[in-house]
Amino acid sequence: MTALAPLLEAFFTERLIGQRQASPNTVATYRDTFSLLLRFAQRRTGRAPQDLDLEDLDAPLIGAFLNYLEAERGASIRTRNLRLTAVRSLFNFAAYRHPDHAALIQRVLAIPPKQARRALVTYLDENEMQALLEAPDRSTWLGRRDYALMLVALETGLRASELTALTCGAVQLGTGAHVRCTGKGRKERITPIRREARKVLGAWLRERGGGHDDALFPGPNGEHLSRDAVRRLIERHLATATTKCPSLATKAVTPHTLRHSLAMNLLRHGVDIATIALVLGHEDVRTTYAIYLHADLTLKEKAIAKTAPRRARRGRYRPPDALLAFLEAL
């Protein structure tokens, strides 16, 4: 047997699951990466995956694999970098198991990630959030469920996976009302909820009537909703809300947009970035800075206005002529 097969087995069982206690999503992502890599290496070398050795996965082959992901499979730069992270994690583990392959390992670890273009986040303003919340027909069971779900999403900023995993027992409606979730990286956090969400959740729990471990927002058969189901229900209510708030038609709204909306709403009301990072469950506050401080033009205008000359008129430049306005808009 070659060194690669036992190395991969130990990497998944000892490092990922045993030591890092990686989430099922992480394990699945790494599994898919190496399935793709081994099949690619089989086509390049003519050897079956079980016969491949560590020397077969050298830097040129890994580089060709990354190019294949982008050119032939249409992977984005972010997905390409995610696959590279999995490969680098394996080779970091291999450095302890096979120091005799140090030169090969270092060459693979030297492969850099690609710089991806960071797009500005999409978020809803207060009028758009209100229009979306008013869209469900609350005379029906589904409408009341969807209203409660979207209100909790906008109040807490939970990720879609965190939102769908909520149970009835995760809601505390007494003093210090909050919801408890296990988020990214298996980190448990508590997020407070305001009076309106507390009343809505209280009424929903009485109607829902589930046990402690039952899904807070169940599907037709009582099971947890999938992320796709949440995306579809938001798209459905977005179509209704757009008739009352046309600005929604210009935005691509996903479950994650509701998370961004909470963050931007807090930022606009003067909440500091460190607190927003705490609410969102970001491990590093620099992540919050990078995502949200660049997104709000109003905040930038306020900052620039503070440096304007004393006698200068404040405000955004407006073309003085209709024709000039047309040309400026091109």
Keywords:
330 residues, hpI Integrase, Chain A, 3-stranded antiparallel beta sheet, 15 helices, 4% strand
Uncertain segments of ≥5 residues (pLDDT<50)?
A: none
Determine Rg (CA atoms, Å). 25 Å
In terms of structural class, how would the helical and strand content be classed? Answer: mainly alpha
Main sheet properties:
3 strands, antiparallel
Distance between the termini: 64 Å
Q: How many DSSP H or I helices?
A: 15
Q: What would CATH call the homologous superfamily of the largest domain?
A: Intergrase catalytic core
Any guess at the CATH architecture of the largest domain? Orthogonal Bundle
Average pLDDT reading: 87
Percent range for helical residues? Answer: 55-70%
Approximately what portion of the residues adopt beta-strand conformation? under 5%
Tally of domains: 3
Strand order of the largest sheet: 1-2-3
Task: Please name the CATH topology of the largest domain.
Answer: hpI Integrase, Chain A
User: What top-tier CATH class of the largest domain fits best?
Assistant: Mainly Alpha
Order of helices and strands: HHHHHHHHEEEHHHHHHH
Q: Say how many strands there are.
A: 3
| Backbone shape | globular
Model description:
- Helices cover 57% and strands 4% of the residues.
- With 330 residues, the chain is mostly helical.
- The protein folds into three domains: 4-109; 126-288, Orthogonal Bundle (hpI Integrase, Chain A); 299-329, no CATH class.
- Strands 1-2-3 form a three-stranded antiparallel beta sheet, with no helix packed on it.
- A hairpin with a 5-residue loop joins strand 1 (171-172) and strand 2 (178-182).
- 28% of the residues are buried.
- The mean pLDDT is 87.
